[in-house]
Amino acid sequence: MARMFAAWTVGERTGSSRMLDMPDIEPSRRERRIRTLIVEDEAPARGRLLRFLRAHPDVEIAGEAATGAVAIALIERAAPDLVILDIKLPDISGLEVLKRLSERPHVIFSTAYDSYAIEAFEVEAIDFLLKPYEQKRVDIALERVRARIQKVEPPVQLEELIRKLNGSAPLAMQRLALHDREHIVLASSAEIFYFIAEGDEVYARLRARRLTIRRSLRDLERMMEPQRFFRANRSVLVNLDLVREIHPWFGGRFVIRFSQLEPSEQIEVSRRQAKLLSDMLD
Description:
By secondary structure, the chain is α/β, with parallel strands linked by helices. 30% of the residues lie in helices and 32% in strands.
């Protein structure tokens, strides 16, 4: 009877993992296969990446994770050859996941248009994928990993990359493309008081005007430094560096007022987020 090994996957909503029984593979075949774990918190992105990986017969999906904590447990248990690792996860960063591993596999990072991270990856010759994922880029990254595995090269040392990204450039250096009818305005994220979603549009509030930005609020929240940009409620992401006052409000909520904006222009912080903000500022 063929032996069995355990591949693990993770539920999309709960973050819990489950074990799947899968048939073992003959030793000669197993040596040629790349056991791969996907760490990505967005289910549609995971599905897209899975589809691209399955185009490669030598890639075996060892599991999926939507959070850093689950990823660490799965990596330690399944010992994959390769991890495709999102830099920004809901609980801890992808870099923190790597720091907590006793042994590191080969890694392909994924990131959503973080120009500073991309520069660091290129300098350190680390493979990375930009979101949204594309088949061609996945193919190229896999080919590089495949070459390292065939040469029996150890995983790339990541200490220098981690040092660079942990001490990353100030977010003020990040430029965002904002839209004013037919014009594109490049603005520093440090200039933006808040992002607000209204219907199908998302607006960036500058000192003198507000302009549309062609990203979802969720994408922006993932891109921005969490110590600077805070999700005040379902519709607003606030730049805490430009906040002047935070006032208690009805029902355990807060209201935020900004420097350089009229006092009448204020943002309400939901009860749930008010607790998080209070803990963050203590």
